[in-house]
Amino acid sequence: MSKNILITGASSGFGLLIANELHRNGYNVIGTSRNPEKIQSTVPFKMIALNLDSEQSINTFSERIFKEISQLDILINNAGFLVSGIAEETPVELGRQQLETNFWGTIKVTNAILPHFRKQKFGKIITIGSIIGLVSFPNAAYYAASKHALEGYFKALRYELDEFNISVAMIEPSAFKTNIMDNSTSPFNKIEEYNSLRGKIEKFTDELVKNAEDPKIVAEKVLKVVQTDNPKFRNIVGKDTSVLINLQHFAYGILEKNVLKQLNKS
After folding, report:
1. Average pLDDT, stretch 102-109?
2. Sign of the dihedral defined by the CA atoms of residues 253, 197, 200, 183, in that order
3. Which 8-state DSSP code applies to residue 186?
């Protein structure tokens, strides 16, 4: 019997690529989106409605999915968005929304699924993190905070769920060509003193996106984790990520030497 896999945020970016990759490899994929009707006719897998910011939406989706399938084998947490901006310029409310969606929304969905995993005594939780969840980056403080929070939470959850035969893994991508910047949110009010730095960051980011890798690599990595019975917790994807992770205790020094040096050259 084909395994049932639930993927949040499957209407675009990594989520859509992952969903298509798993579908091509014979898995029964169920994707989520805030507005599934807008994409259902364009994808070969089933889409259902889910808004990570709504308790009612999460409860409704949880009840619905287990009426349609007898068991769920894998949950892939992917949904989220990016708040891009200088930390001091970013309103706290916007930063709070970043954490509410990326962190708390992911936790709420996971908690809605966990009772079913424990009852069936197996399951796999794969969460799409980011290299920024390990090494922070200028102009993305709240996004980095949300990804750091996910890293810490799921690291603890991995130990707590081991006795229930439920595995937990993180996918940590670096820069890839996706639409995340197109769907990002930025503060409107700018602080003049940051204008020079902001310009350098924007130039650096444009270059980073220009030279970014094909995101299909991330979908292929997720497929490998899906196919692994007992995957390792951290699964890095992308150029130069292994160096940063292996030396993460010295990561700020590396960033200062490489990233900030490049910014100062701009």
Report:
1. 97
2. positive
3. -
| Residue appearing with tokens 């001091």 | 88
Residue 77: both structure tokens together: 């947490």
Helix segments in 166-250, DSSP class H: 195-210, 216-227, 241-246
Question: Which of 155, 183, 180 is CA-nearest to residue 170?
Answer: 155
Length of the chain equals 266
- Helix (H) / strand (E) containing 116: helix 106-120
Task: Map out the domains of the chain with their CATH numbers.
Answer: 4-265 (3.40.50.720)
Rounded Cα distance between 64 and 49, Å, is: 10
Beta bridge partners of 3: none
Whole-model pTM over 0.85: yes
Q: What single letter denotes the amino acid at residue 87?
A: A
- CB-CB contact of 167 with 232 (8 Å): no
Cβ-in-10-Å burial (0-12, 13-18, 19+) of 89 comes to: middle
Q: What is the DSSP code (8-state) at residue 194? A: G
The owner of tokens 């994409």 is: 39
CB 35 within 8 A of CB 64: no
Segment 222-261, tens digit of pLDDT: 999 999 999 999 998 887 555 455 444 444 454 555 555 5
State pLDDT tens for residues 45-60: 999 999 999 999 999 9
| Nearest Cα residue to 128 out of 100, 108, 147 | 147
CA distance 16 to 45: 10
SS3 140: strand
CA distance 151 to 257: 25
Just list the catalytic residues.
143
